[in-house]
């Protein structure tokens, strides 16, 4: 529900940016709208990151300001905080993380659009 609401509100703000610009759509207008979309994709995470990566490759279809804005998402995916990782592991397993792992490195080795990798020992 929250993701859907973020999409709707972001879409409305982007539409307002373009309506306000009227016939004077500038590079700044595109950067503003692209920034709003980028932040929404990051906040929604998961498949939205994958969509953002694909969106950043649509050079023939979207203004260059969008490509530049989404470039970081294509080069490196945002990382999930260790607090969130710990919470997910404990909720999914029903156990304390300390009881599951002998060691678990807080900093991920790598991250991708749909997950990240941590070094751990059972």
TrEMBL record:
Residues 76-122 form the ABC1 atypical kinase-like domain. It comes from the Eukaryota. PANTHER family: AARF DOMAIN-CONTAINING PROTEIN KINASE 1, ABC1 FAMILY PROTEIN. This is ABC1 atypical kinase-like domain-containing protein. It comes from Favella ehrenbergii.
């Amino acid at each position: 529900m929250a993701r859907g609401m973020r999409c709707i509100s972001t879409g409305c703000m982007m539409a307002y940016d373009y309506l306000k610009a009227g016939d004077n759509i500038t590079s700044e207008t595109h950067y503003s709208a692209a920034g709003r979309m980028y932040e929404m994709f990051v906040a929604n995470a998961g498949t939205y990151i994958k969509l953002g990566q694909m969106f950043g490759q649509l050079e023939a279809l979207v203004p260059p300001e969008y490509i530049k804005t989404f470039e970081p998402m294509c080069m490196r995916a945002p990382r999930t905080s260790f607090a969130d990782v710990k919470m997910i592991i404990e909720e999914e397993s029903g156990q304390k993380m300390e009881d599951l792992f002998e060691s678990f490195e807080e900093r991920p080795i790598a991250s991708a659009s749909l997950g990240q990798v941590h070094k751990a020992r059972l």
